[in-house]
Design goal:
This protein is α+β, with helices and mostly antiparallel strands. Helices cover about 25% and strands about 45% of the residues. The chain has one domain: YaeB-like fold, CATH 3.30.2310. Strand 6 and strand 7 form a beta hairpin.
């Protein structure tokens, strides 16, 4: 899936399913991040700050506003199924906002 199609589907809230890998569930528990928060951010992307396309094809790094000085990074594998978006959450971690560099902002380039 290409970047443009992914962002359009994310913006239109066309997510049909969010699955979290076992690795991700374990890491969320260790990092004290709620699975509900991750799903809330994915289904309501108003706090999305940027998107980077990654390898392999269909993998994206999403930057969400988390705290005053941190972003919440969500790595997802995206599948396009019947005009809907199926997301598999690979991992989630906080990162200082100042590390956010030259990412494609939600719908535009920096």
């Amino acid at each position: 899936m290409d970047f443009t199609k992914f962002v359009a589907l994310l913006r239109s809230k066309s997510i049909s399913e969010v699955t979290v890998t076992h690795h991700c569930e374990y890491r969320l528990q260790i990092r004290g991040i709620s699975k509900d928060l991750v799903e809330e951010l994915l289904y309501n992307p108003q706090r999305l700050r940027g998107v980077l396309q990654q390898e392999p094809e269909g993998r994206f790094k999403l930057y969400y506003a988390y705290t005053e000085d941190k972003d919440l990074i969500i790595i997802v594998d995206a599948r396009h199924v019947k005009s809907k978006l199926k997301l598999i959450v690979v991992t989630v971690f906080p990162q200082p906002s100042k590390r956010r560099t030259k990412v494609k902002e939600y719908g535009r380039e920096d």
